[in-house]
Amino acid sequence: MDEAPVPADYSDLKALFFNGTLKRSPQKSNTEGLIRLSRLIMEKQGVATRVIRTVDHDIASGVYPDMREYGWETDEWPELYPAVQEADIVVVAGPIWLGDNSSQTKKLIERLYAHSGELNAKGQWAFYPKVGGCLITGNEDGIKHCSMNVLYSLQHIGFTIPPQADAGWIGPVGPGPSYLDEGSGGPESDFTNRNTTFMTWNLLHLARMLKDAGGIPAYGNLPEEWKAGSKFGFENPEYR
């Protein structure tokens, strides 16, 4: 069957993948293997992509933009954050440990949250209108649990989430091969490959739509105007 033509040009978009593996480079990361599938689709469309393996960087724990101002001697997050600011698409990826996201993934979410009170050029929260997605790998059940946590967190701080914005792969319950291990069946999984592809294209489509529209309309979501007295149609029936 002939494939339908690609509906738009995506070559002006930038995508950033955060890998929450606990393995420092150059150790093999199974999460990186799944990231590669999504990244390849994007790069075929001319999208500029970057992967940051957070464990390779000295990122302090905390919920402020620069933790050196709060007692930490070192913090590389301020040097990494500009990549988030430049990105149209941010994908949070990581492994499952004890049925939950890794400590690196959780730390990343906390550091993104540190900027959630900042404003963009239109006066909206800083992450409008960036698009967010999620990739999960592991040996135990927990893909949906981990994805729910990541996607809820991203939308809560201002990212826009398209439909089917997560994908993942898990092996059998208990010890066994990981995604990139020989004979795991991970790279051949039609379910994982389909969901990763759908997620990637939905990220591209929504990022394209938002960029062409100039982002989310700046009405009803401006915190400074709310503080100044604009209520955007809100009425409290208790005060009538």
Give a brief rundown of this model.
The chain has 240 residues and is α/β, with parallel strands linked by helices. The protein contains 6 helices and 6 strands; from the N terminus they run E-H-E-H-E-E-H-E-H-E-H-H. The chain is globular.
Describe this entry's structure for a reader.
- The protein has 240 residues and is α/β, with parallel strands linked by helices.
- Helices cover 32% and strands 15% of the residues.
- It is built from six helices and six strands.
- Strands 1, 2, 3, 4, 5 and 6 form a six-stranded mixed sheet that branches.
- Helix 1 (30-44) packs across helix 5 (190-212).
- The termini are far apart.
- The mean pLDDT is 94.
Percent strand equals 15-25%
How confident is the prediction overall: mean pLDDT?
Answer: 94
Extract low-pLDDT stretches.
none
* N- and C-termini, Cα separation: 62 Å
Assign the structural class, choosing from mainly alpha, mainly beta, alpha/beta, alpha+beta, or little secondary structure: alpha/beta
Indicate the multimeric state.
single chain
Helix fraction bin: 25-40%
Structural Rg: 19 Å
Please give the count of helices.
6
The number of distinct β-strands equals 6
> SSE order, as H and E?
EHEHEEHEHEHH
Q: What is the overall shape?
A: globular
Largest sheet: 6 strands, mixed
